[in-house]
Amino acid sequence: MMLASLGLLLAGSATAHAYESRLIPFRDVGERDWSAEPIYQLAAVQAIDGYADGGFRPLAAMSREEFIKMMTAASGAVPGEQGETVKLKDVDPDRWSYPMIEAALQRRWVDALVDSDGNFQPDVPIRREEVAYAMGAMLLSEAADADRKQWLDGGWEKERDARAFPDAAQVDAPLAPYAYYAVKQGMLEGSDSGLNPDDSLSRQEAAAVIDRLLHRTASAKPLTVTGFYAIQSYNSIERMSLLDQVALGWWHLAYEGAGKAKLDSAGDPYKFNLPEGWEEVTAAADKSGAAKDLVVFANKSHDVESFLGDAAARTQFAESLAAVVDDPRYGFSGVCIDFEDLYDEASKDDFTAFLHEVKAVLNGKKLTVAVPPVYYYKGYDLKAIGAQADAVILMAYNFLSKADRLPSSPLPLVAESVRDTLAAGVPKEKLILGIGKKTDQFIGAGAEAGYASPASSAVEERLKKAGVAQSLSIPYLNRHIQFTDTADNELFYEDADSIDRKIWVARYYGLKGVALWYMGQFVDSDWQRIAAVRQR
Description:
It contains 18 helices and 14 strands. The protein is α/β, with parallel strands linked by helices. The chain folds into four domains: 1-59, no CATH class; 60-218, no CATH class; 224-437 and 497-535, TIM Barrel; 439-493, Chitinase A, domain 3. The strands form two sheets. The chain has an eight-stranded parallel barrel with strand order 1-2-4-5-6-7-8-14, surrounded by seven helices. The protein has a five-stranded antiparallel β-sheet with strand order 10-9-13-12-11, with no helix packed on it. A hairpin with a 6-residue loop joins β9 (439-443) and β10. α4 crosses α5. Residues 1-18 have low confidence and may be disordered.
């Protein structure tokens, strides 16, 4: 049995040290191992477990019950939801794996794994042909009746002949139609020696199979795409057609002291200002059919906590906001409130009251609220925000710990922040996963190391030059880049593959969509992945 879930293994409190403790890689799965990506990707969403000693044991054989439990859970099948209770001689109803085995048997996915005496043999290592059979039976159950009949009536033989595995004759005849359907669907792959039907399935192979299944399932789930057009994003104006929503970051809070506040569009040091020629941007959004949100930015430099505690100033601000939202020149469909740095729990009620006041002046237009992960920020009542807002954007890209040379958006913490936000009461159909396109560059070594966050275009140009080593960073699952110029450089880069993984996380948890911060940082390869989201 797997002894400790990754969530427990990597638990910790909200400190830099605890942040690191949640990101300890398995001691026996390195970044250059072929199975590293599926193992760490599944571990991030707690779909696969490690052991209490910190290992994963990638080469250990997986038992029948372990695999069927993983497969059934990945399929979304609910134990006890379908059919009568299943009685097995060697699997008692109180056994840890029984609910998932029962669910699989009720759906006729693993009938062939029960012998004539009613034994399932849960501890026996599962063989590759049994894995292929179970996966194929599950996938065929989802096919249309006519397609399933055609396959079972002989269609599978064409697949067998086309594959021409050297060991095809070794596949048990009753399992073959289902096994070859799993192969056709890309769930299992052969090798030079063939399908190797009698070999046991290792834990790393199981991770790869389940990862393929989860990606297949997730790919069918629709997502909305929101792009933040802010700071320096003119280079992405032609990408509006890939968006459902564009959030225009041109306004900020101007708190002028007791009882005085307004929406402002000039003089913000964070560049949340109305640019010259803004009409070209709104025209591009209108042409592409993307809805437009007005983004209101504020953080501690705007004295945001004092403002929220000033009821009179909030009222004045809401009136100022309403005038711009209703201005026909912009054609806004809603407002996105991006108030950051609310560390104090005392801000919760004030922020909730402020959102209520904003919604009251929107005249039916949509309210979106951006929130940070709640590791450090306690001024957000997520349940109340989820109830008031039409959409909630989780800014899951602010985990950086410079002292420990850690990246801004490691996949395990992105996934954990999604789970935390959902558990806090934000409905999944309202939650949007924010994806930050950022590079964390550490220059030199030790306590004197410098830090930089170069533009994506600069990183892409450096990658074209000689002397660059690249790998998959584990367990972060960003691109790991190393090179030496005047000093040693280590970079964690949010490349297209990393963005794809976060899109998958949004689908895995059934979220409303993804949001891109900010559009000007995304490069051509990233937009190709985003285009694929819209095409589905």
